[in-house]
Amino acid sequence: MKSSRVRKITLSLAALAAVGLFMPFSNLFLHRPTPLPVEGSEEFRRVSVVLQQKCADCHTPKRTAYPVYSSLPIANRIIETDIEEAQKHIIFSDDMLQGKTPISALDKAKIQSAFLDGGMPPLKYLALHWDAKITRADKEAILTWLQSEKPLHPDTAGSQE
After folding, report:
1. pTM for the model
2. Mean pLDDT, to the nearest integer, of 107-129?
């Protein structure tokens, strides 16, 4: 009797661990939208690649690579709520990511803050998307691009430093 109970607990824990590892592991094989062609400076091209690879899932409408578990009711609601919350703060249009539409000074400040303070991507996203971590090279690309950009208005010159 006691060994049967231990066996059930062990199997339950093993199943839970398998599901827990399956979710982030499966995200390494997501089918992502084709990267957008990018116009503009070499600095912006590098930034666009980072934004498309690490930010577009939540911040670009219609460019979310949904994981295999996204159709599950609880997971679906969490994912949709996270996307809605993300897009309250900043949205990257395809034209912005391609360099066809300039990114505003306010959005540049938001990007700088998010990358430098380490708040993006959120930890719960990183827990399931192991390849979304912002690297030192990503931060350097963002800073180089921001420093190369001229402010859109003279009164915003100090907002990008």
Report:
1. 0.75
2. 88
